[in-house]
Design a protein that fits this description.
This protein has about 260 residues and is of the alpha/beta class. The protein has two domains: about 10-190, Rossmann fold (3-Layer(aba) Sandwich); about 200-235, no CATH class. It is built from seven helices and nine strands. It has helices at about 25-35, 75-80, 95-100, 105-115, 140-145, 165-190, 240-245; strands spanning about 10-20, 45-55, 60-70, 85-95, 125-130, 150-155, 205-210, 220, 245-250. A hairpin with a 2-residue loop joins β2 (about 45-55) and β3 (about 60-70). It is globular, with a radius of gyration of 18 Å. It binds guanosine-5'-triphosphate. Guanosine-5'-triphosphate (GTP) binds next to α1. It comes from Drosophila lebanonensis (Fruit fly).
Amino acid sequence: MENMRPPQKSVLLKVVILGDGGVGKSCLMNRFVSNRYDENNFHTIGVEFMNKDIVVDGEKYTLQIWDTAGQERFWALRTPFYRGSDICLLCYALNDRESLRHLKRWRDEFLQFADVKPEKFPFIVVGNKNDLRHEINPAEVQQWCTDQNIAIHIDTSSKAATNVTDAFVLAVQRWKHLERVAEAELRQDGETIDLTRPVRLLQKRVCCTGGGGGDGGTNGADYDDNDAHFADSAMRAPTFKTRQLFGQQRKATKAPKTNYQL
Ligand SMILES: Nc1nc2c(ncn2[C@@H]2O[C@H](COP(=O)(O)OP(=O)(O)OP(=O)(O)O)[C@@H](O)[C@H]2O)c(=O)[nH]1
């Protein structure tokens, strides 16, 4: 029989989106997963998540994206979901200076509850609402990222569908880069590495063949590698109980074909 190669496994990554209420976290997730945009979104209460399959640099990933409530009063509902994250998107709105200033608070909250090493964790700064007049100049964002030791920031518009997929792709590449760094460190320490499996992903991250639960559809885009990353945490999928309590899975109704051109 021809073409009987085993299907490539998909690596499961938990991605958490944090930032002030109204900066556009839910819109970003919906644009990425379903290519939809809703002008009249309700505030998120607690957390919601969606899955999306994506191919980056020839490797399959299932991104489990957690959209969190940005309003302060929901902190107790969102913080239990930080543990087990692989990537954190820190989201602000380009027309709202305060939302950039508050990113420090969001980062600190994440570090407190996710229990990860800041220098080894892939944070990506996302400036959303790129279609509106900017209140913040790029040098300020760059300075903030440098101060916080964050390597990547990108401007997006969920409304205009600008750079949304790119933001998630960059995040995966950053994660991959850190993974390689971790692998190199292990080699230096003389530890044995199983080259057939991702470092520290041994039992948990390899997800499934053919992808992520079918909620998002597969983005066939492929990306050239240059950069990458690693999270120091274990993947923990939500249990049925926690889903019932807080983490509702948002259904992407028919996922239309993405119109992103990368
Ligand atoms: N112009 C413009 N407006 C946007 C964009 N993204 C989101 N919005 C608007 O901002 C509103 C709030 O977006 P949400 O995605 O609900 O914001 P959020 O960060 O999830 O808010 P919380 O759920 O309260 O944390 C939306 O209803 C849109 O009207 C964008 O890229 N451009």
